[in-house]
Structures are given as C-alpha cells and as structure tokens.
C-alpha cells in the first residue's frame, strides 16, 4: 500500500512525512488485521481521505462504519487513525466485547498524553475548533476535563 503514497520518504524528518507515516501505519494496521483475522474487519470511519486506498481496503474485506452499533458483538474493530476516540466509545467497545485495534496516529496520541499531563497538573486545556468535530471528540477521551471552545 506504500505505493499509493507517492512521495513518501522515510528519511524526511519534516512534519508532513511524520503525518504521512501515521497514515501509512493506519493502513498497514488494517491490512495486517485482515491477514491475521480474515474479513470482515470493522473500521470506525474511513481510515484515510483517499478513495483509492479506502476502496482497496473495502475490496479486501474492511467494513467502514460510522458508529459502533453497526459492528457485530465480538468483531475485530479498528479505531480511526487521525483523531482518536472518546472514552465513551472505548467503554462501549469493551462492554460489547469488541476486539479493538487502535490506529490512532502517534502524533495525536502524543498530544493527548501531553494534554492529560496538563490536566493532571490542575491546568485547564482549551481546544479551539468545531464542536462535535472528530478531532474534538478524540480529545474527549484522554482528558475528560478538556474544555472546548
């Protein structure tokens, strides 16, 4: 699937290359899950904004869903790569016995952890963005006291 990511250069330390590596990692997680567990593997939201890649994964047996309620109990489920998920979604997956693989971008996870450290220090973390957007919902998981503006 790396061939679909033209211009990918692992030696590039720029932020664009790091972001691209996170997306390539997410694609590889889906592909490896399909190899290991077989189809179908459920993916919460399309893993990347690339129709060719999404269609290719769909053809291999990935099933893209918007809500966990669309996933059968006990199924292998992959969480979206870019933004993470709210703690409520994680708890719902656990309650339903879903086998979850986390494809959250490592850079996003790093931001979540830093935000949690600030919250643990008693600071208020303010996120500026669109209410209800996937980025904001993802930040709702790690630090429940994040404040949205």
Plain-language structure description:
- The protein has helices at 15-37, 51-60, 87-95, 106-120, 134-140, and strands spanning 41-44, 62-65, 76-79, 99-102, 126-127, 147-148.
- With 149 residues, it is an alpha/beta fold.
- It has one domain (13-148): Rossmann fold (3-Layer(aba) Sandwich).
- The protein has a 4-stranded parallel β-sheet. It has a two-stranded parallel sheet with strand order 5-6.
- The model is unreliable at 1-12 and 136-145 (pLDDT under 50).
Structural class estimated from helices and strands: alpha/beta
The chain-level mean pLDDT equals 75
Helix content: 40-55%
Low-confidence stretches: 1-12, 136-145
- Distance separating the two termini: 38 Å
DSSP summary, beta strand count: 6
Brief sketch in words of this structure:
With 149 residues, the protein is α/β, with parallel strands linked by helices. The protein contains five helices and six strands; from the N terminus they run αβαββαβαβαβ.
How do the helices and strands line up, and which of them pair or pack?
Elements: H1 15-37, E1 41-44, H2 51-60, E2 62-65, E3 76-79, H3 87-95, E4 99-102, H4 106-120, E5 126-127, H5 134-140, E6 147-148
Parallel strand pairs: 1-2, 1-3, 3-4, 5-6
Features:
5 helices, 149 residues, 43% helix, disordered N terminus, Rossmann fold, alpha/beta, two-stranded parallel ribbon, four-stranded parallel beta sheet
């Amino acid at each position: 699937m790396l061939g679909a990511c033209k211009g990918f250069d692992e030696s590039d330390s720029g932020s664009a290359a790091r972001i691209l590596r996170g997306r390539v990692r997410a694609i590889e997680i889906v592909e490896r899950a399909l190899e290991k567990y077989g189809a179908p593997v459920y993916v919460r939201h399309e893993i990347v904004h690339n129709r060719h890649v999404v269609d290719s994964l769909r053809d291999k047996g990935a099933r893209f869903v918007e809500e966990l309620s669309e996933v059968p109990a006990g199924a292998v489920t992959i969480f979206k790569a870019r933004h993470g998920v709210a703690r409520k979604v994680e708890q719902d997956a656990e309650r339903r016995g879903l086998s979850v693989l986390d494809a959250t971008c490592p850079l996003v996870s790093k931001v979540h952890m830093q935000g949690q450290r600030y919250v643990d220090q008693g600071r208020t973390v303010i996120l500026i963005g669109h209410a209800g957007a996937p980025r904001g919902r993802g930040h709702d998981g790690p630090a429940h006291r994040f404040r949205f503006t």
